[in-house]
Design goal:
single chain; 390 residues; alpha+beta; OB fold (Dihydrolipoamide Acetyltransferase, E2P); five-stranded antiparallel beta sheet; elongated
Amino acid sequence: MIYCIKKTKQEKSKVEKNKGYKKGIKLFIAIVCVIIFLPIILLMAFDRFINDTDLVIGITGFTQKVVFRSGLSLVALIAAIVCLIKMFLSDKRVKHIIGYLTGVLICAAVIFFAIRPLVLDVPYLDHPLLTYLNKFDLDRSSGTGDSPTRYYLRGRDAEGKKHSFEISRDRYDEGIQLRGEKDIIAKAAYLPHTSVLITLEYMEELDGAGREMYLPNPELPNNWDSFSIQIDDDVYTIPCRLSDFLENGWSLSEGDPDSRLAGADQPYAEFPNRDLSLTNDKEQSISVTVYNTSESSVPIKDGTVGRLSVSNSNLDFYGADLQLPGGLMLGWATAEDVISQYGEPSYRYGSDRLTYELEGAESTKHMDLTFYNGFLRSAVIQNHEYFREY
């Protein structure tokens, strides 16, 4: 009886040991799986998240930057720690110390430049910067291997500043479709240090917020028959002296600046004139017609600019740097904007040209505007007689 009881207890103890052994094996396998597979799963999730192009706009886009830059900084931090440990454990040779210190400094620089833009952009999360892009490009870059195709919105704003934003495929396709119908403007709210796009809106013309961003010089009148124009920050009223342009940094790109204009010394004679091209240090170009209204010859610089022509066909101007009366920007204003500001034109040629002319001026006092794909492309201001009146 006693022998049976002892045997039963031994068998139970053996079973419990076997169960403990099996649990230990299972726990060991679980730990190994976690050690091996969890990092792989996390890396796959990390890669999928930062490469998901559907998330690049908005707070999710900023989060992608945070995750990627934080991961990069973590790797750099680990590398810096390894360099420090090896430096203290090395044989203290100068070249080894210099090498390890250089590695630490490089890692510190990587961490600084990776984290700094994130910190600087935090205040802008609730109040992102706003910009408008005209004549922008929609590009895509095919990834190598399993990398996804990425889509970009690139262009300049009305002040000439370059911008490049990553966008989703849906917004890329939308922009391609809309731009196939007519030129459009992209309104972008963004974070300035990481260039993350928070919101994107395509529109056919500049809205009120955009006009408020690019206010003209207060000296620029609102009416077209002021015959005024703002170029950069300077306002010119035609007619004016050619020397007014030369004093503001414009130069003659052709002909001799010391050449002269003959005088109109006969009654009803045509005023001697010359067509000139002016350029500035921004490589912008305008065309002027210079007249001599006196009876004797004068140096060309003392002539009178009676006609001025500007064009955006070569993209010399970005918008805010050339404005017509009322703040209408070259390359940005539409025909509807012009009519809203100036009223109905004297002549209208389809949707591509508007002419405003003073009554009875016989083509000597007018403003001629042309449009391309809906936006103002060129302007001609004429405010000068062709002949003497006596």
